[in-house]
Amino acid sequence: MQIHATAIIDPKAHLSKDVHIGAYSIIGPGVYLEDRVKIHEHVVIKCNTRIGEDSEIYPFVSLGESAQDLKSIQDNNILIIGARTTIREHSSIHAASQPGKQTQLGSDCFIMGQVHIGHDCNIGNHVIITQASMLAGHVTIHDFANLSGNVAVHQGVSIGKHVFVGGKTGVRQDIAPYCSVEGHPARLLGLNSVGLKRHGFLFEDRLFLKKAFKILFMSNLLIEEACKQLELYQNPMVDELLQFARNSKRGLLRKL
Length: 256
Hints:
The chain is of the alpha/beta class and 256 residues long. It has helices at residues 193-198, 203-218, 223-230, 236-247; strands spanning 2-3, 8-9, 14-15, 20-21, 26-27, 32-33, 38-39, 44-45, 49-51, 56-57, 62-65, 78-81, 86-87, 92-94, 102-105, 110-111, 116-117, 122-123, 128-129, 134-135, 140-141, 146-147, 152-153, 158-159, 164-165, 170-171, 179-182, 187-191. The strands form 3 sheets. The chain has an 11-stranded mixed beta sheet with strand order 1-4-7-10-13-16-19-22-25-27-28.
């Protein structure tokens, strides 16, 4: 281990092998740092935060602080961060707002500087959140989503897999998987074609998604009517789009 002499480590914290902790960082009780976690200078990690192996936390990051929620009950609130995740300078991720609940950030994520992730958020794997974006409480972001700079996401919104959100976008409604959005308020630009190609999606699957996109967002059908047509495609990616649309709680963004 490499622990700077000025770091403050609570005796009830658990440090696995080859952990690095920089100068003036504070590690609270119940914090669990897995193998090869690197904590830079001036980082504060509060109780009941777990950070997965090979993750790296940069200076002036705050993790596991109490929820910014007037109804919050602070007792055994949890923050889980997956393996190989990077969190850059001045970002903050809050613990859950209720005892025994958790805020969760997946593996292989890249969280850039000055990002805020609120209480009870559930962030998937391979998610990128760019500079100065803000997530309110109870936001869900699925795998491989990419949020550009200065994005603001309303409480309770769900953002689907492989979604691309352009800079300075205000997101108030759920965004279906594989889509690209931009604007304030957000509007659909189309499928995230660039992202799908980069991740090696087959041409046939992308073609199915294009047809499904037209039915769901360009046909003027009601959501349930469009979903019934999507059932006929029997394609796994279209099925994900279908289930997301049916499970939407904030209302599916359909504005082009």
